[in-house]
Amino acid sequence: MPKNPLIKTRFHNGNIETETSDQARDLFETSRYGVLKGQKVNLAITEAVYLLEKEKIEIYDGRNHKLTYEELIKKAIKQQPDFFIRYSVFKNLRERGYIVKTALKFGADFRVYERGVKPGEDHAKWVVFPVHETKALTWYDFSAKNRVAHSTKKRLLIGVVDDEDDVSYWECKWIRP
Length: 177
What we know:
The chain is of the alpha+beta class and 177 residues long. It contains 5 helices and 10 strands; from the N terminus they run E-E-H-E-E-H-E-H-H-E-E-E-H-E-E. The chain folds into 2 domains: 7-79, tRNA intron endonuclease, N-terminal domain (MutS, DNA mismatch repair protein, domain I), CATH 3.40.1170; 83-172, Trna Endonuclease, Chain: A, domain 1 (3-Layer(aba) Sandwich).
C-alpha cells in the first residue's frame, strides 16, 4: 500500500502554514496539530519540527527551497534560544498521548489536555513551563508561574529537562486544607 504523500508547508516570516488539502485538515482534525485558518493549518515551530521529524510534512521557504531538519532547527533556535528545552517537553508529552498547544496568551509555554480530550471540547488541565535541570528558579519565579496556572484554572506542570533530554514533571496545584 503506498505511503501517504507528505503535507507541503511554507515557512514565511516565522510562520509555518500548510497547503490547502484534505490531508492537512485531517492532521488538524484527528491530532489537533496547529490552528485551522480558513482552508490551511498554521503550525507552531515545535509542531513543525516534530512533524518533520516524524516525516509527516515537508517545509519550503519563500524561495521554494525545501528545508532540511537542521535548517529548520537553526530557524527555531533563532526564534527561541531555549528551543531544545521546550521541544524536549513538547515531544515527550506528545509521545505520551497528550495534545499540547502553545499558551503564550496564558503567560505559559504550553497548555496540555488530558488524554482523549481535544481543544474546544474541554479546557486544558495544565499549563507547562519547561526548564533545564541546571536553571535556578527563584521562589518569586515559582510563585508567578503558580499564579498563572491558578488564574487560568489550570494546574502548574514544570517539565524539567536533563542533559540527556529526559523529562521529569512536577505538578503543583492549589489545595484547601
